[in-house]
Amino acid sequence: MDLLPGVTYIGGQSLWSWGVQVNSILRLGENDNDYSLGNQYGISVWGARKINEYASLSMRLDGKTWGDIEGADLELNPMMVPTARTDLRGGESIDFLVGIDLIAPDGKMEGNRLAIEAGMPIYQKLDGPQLATDFRLSIGWQLSF
After folding, report:
1. What confidence tens digit (pLDDT) does each residue in 43-64 have?
2. Long-range contact list for 69-77, CB < 8 A, 24+ apart?
3. What is the pTM of this model?
């Protein structure tokens, strides 16, 4: 079981909006295999500018730090498989992202929203042999009625 606390502040004025979010994942125990992933802490800061009634552009910095795994699978030999070393699973990163948000306020597409965000790390420090992030892409579609 994990606890996911977080807090968000959102502001805006005329054509501009901004915000900050602080969140975490706190591991409260072990799973059925007697280990738990490390705690994770993050902060995201963004700003957006409305272009017209249908579109807005955004920029965001997304920072994250995460800890090592606690516990281990006794059948894995960390000397033979470096990725089995639980003390080398932590890390930290800061990603820079840009996005576009398209919304249909009326007509046949009313209630539809398409959001696209892409970015890449500007800082990344991994404690051991882990997969690095080269690029992030998120595409979301919402329908409200």
Report:
1. 999 999 999 989 999 999 999 9
2. 69/35, 69/36, 69/37, 69/38, 70/27, 70/30, 70/35, 70/36, 70/38, 71/30, 71/33, 71/34, 71/35, 71/36, 72/35, 73/33, 73/35
3. 0.82
